[in-house]
Design a protein that fits this description.
The chain has 261 residues and is α/β, with parallel strands linked by helices. The chain has a single domain, classed as 3-Layer(aba) Sandwich (Rossmann fold), CATH 3.40.50.720. The chain has 10 helices and 8 strands. Strands 3-2-1-4-5-6-7-8 form an 8-stranded mixed β-sheet, with helices on both faces. Helix 4 crosses helix 10. The chain is globular. The structure holds zinc ion.
């Protein structure tokens, strides 16, 4: 692993002063590769904070274009980006802010056909799509590739965070299950899907969930324990954060849990 440069020691000096963070943590981030799927209200803060924190490689995936109605919460974009592909516009902005990060935009949607190929070289995947079908595609691909997956969603004043880590064997007592354990595909959609267009979302609520995703992502990339096996539910009107535990589901078709309920 390369030596940390003097410039990096200055740039990250406050980070390095924090408890449990070492020069080794910084090196791990520099040599890490993360995939951000969806560059909307979640993906913009996630990508911004991961690049700023020194994550070495970011792959940004989104087939959508920037719209004027996105700007209040999709903070990497301005009026000049309207009509441009979100992954490309985000990569251009982040490369200007953080030239040391290697940022690769992919202007296409993740599907069950291309998911494993798009995610294969990563250390971590962050789902910022806020779509039920996309989360299942990413959950299945991450289980096949044994990659940790940080899932976020937000609607109106509230949001949810869930971390899935398939690096633990599904048959081990330490397995924490997966997204499909919690929301089996055959039981339909758990919440209104991709609903911010229809129901609205508060920009700071989606931004806070994005930062929580970035927080968990940095912990995982630095080799620290993340908040697996739990759903974190944030309600921003009361500023309440509720933790709900969930267990691996017997017979889950994705994580293959065969043990006890
Ligand atoms: Zn499962």
């Amino acid at each position: 692993m390369a030596q940390t440069s003097d410039a990096d020691l200055v740039r990250f000096s406050r980070f390095l002063l924090a408890p449990e963070v070492t020069e080794e943590s910084l090196k791990k981030l520099r040599s890490s590769s993360a995939v951000v799927v969806g560059l909307g209200g979640l993906g913009c803060p996630v990508a911004l904070y991961l690049a700023a924190a020194g994550v070495g490689q970011l792959k940004l995936i989104d087939a959508d274009t920037v719209d004027l109605s996105n700007l209040p919460r999709q903070v990497l974009f301005g009026p000049d980006n309207c009509g441009q592909n979100k992954a490309q516009a985000a990569a251009t902005r982040l490369s200007a802010l953080h030239p040391l990060a290697r940022i690769q935009p992919i202007a296409q949607a993740v599907t069950s056909e291309n998911a494993q190929q798009l995610l294969a070289s990563a250390d971590l995947v962050i789902d910022c799509t806020d779509r039920f079908a996309s989360r299942h595609v990413l959950n299945e691909a991450c289980h096949a590739l044994k990659l940790p997956l940080v899932i976020g969603s937000a609607l109106q004043w509230s949001g949810q965070l869930l971390v899935v880590d398939p690096r633990t064997d599904a048959l081990s007592p330490n397995s924490k299950g997966c997204y499909a354990c919690l929301f089996p595909k055959d039981q339909g959609e758990p919440v209104v899907d991709a609903a911010c267009g229809a129901y609205g979302v508060i920009s700071t609520a989606v931004g806070l969930i994005g930062l929580m995703q970035a927080n968990e992502a940095l912990k995982i990339l630095m080799g620290r324990p993340a908040a697996t096996g739990q759903i974190w539910q944030l309600e921003t009107r009361s500023l309440g954060l509720e933790q709900m535990r969930f267990r691996p589901r017997k017979g889950c078709l994705v994580c293959g849990r065969l043990g006890k309920e």
